[in-house]
Amino acid sequence: MRKLTRRLLGGAAAVVVVTAAATVATTTAASATTGTPSGAPPNDMDVWCVSTTGAKACFKAYGDKVWVKDTVANGQSAAGTIKEDASPSGWYRECFNTRGADGGWVMCDFDVPEYSAGVLWAVNNPFIGSQASTKIQTTII
């Protein structure tokens, strides 16, 4: 009986270690933040933009920056999300603009893997509102 108890406890400890490692890996793959006020994104060849009713989002590959603008005074926030295109469980970053339509652009400075295909989303009323997307590259080749 004592050997069985040790085996069960050893197995439980392994599950805790594996779960903790998986949690750390997941938290490093995702990031969400409220952007800081900024000017409009630059008009460069490595900048992608997408718009939907109520939101516009832009991503600049060099520097991994996301800009978000709320474009409709409707009391809802706007968000710009970049996400790895190839994997549903891969990296993603979210930038929220909670300043309203009169608040202008906000910018978030992220770090994303280089040489990745991704998707940029513009979302009004995050998680339930209108949204649009476009494909991006995290590095200009």
Kindly describe this structure.
- The strands form 2 sheets. Strands 1-7-6-9-10 form a 5-stranded mixed beta sheet. It has a 5-stranded antiparallel beta sheet with strand order 2-8-5-4-3, with no helix packed on it.
- The chain is α+β, with helices and mostly antiparallel strands and 141 residues long.
- It has one helix at 2-29; strands spanning 30-34, 36-38, 47-52, 55-60, 65-70, 78-84, 92-97, 105-109, 117-124, 131-137.
List keywords for this structure.
141 residues; alpha+beta; five-stranded antiparallel β-sheet; 1 helix; 10 strands; disordered N terminus
The average pLDDT value, as a whole number, equals 82
Give the oligomeric state of the chains in this entry, treating copies of one chain as homo and distinct chains as hetero: single chain
Q: Which structural class is indicated by helix and strand composition?
A: alpha+beta
Strand content: 35-45%
Q: In order across it, which strands form the biggest sheet?
A: 1-7-6-9-10
- Given the C-alpha coordinates, what overall shape results? globular
Q: How many DSSP H or I helices? A: 1
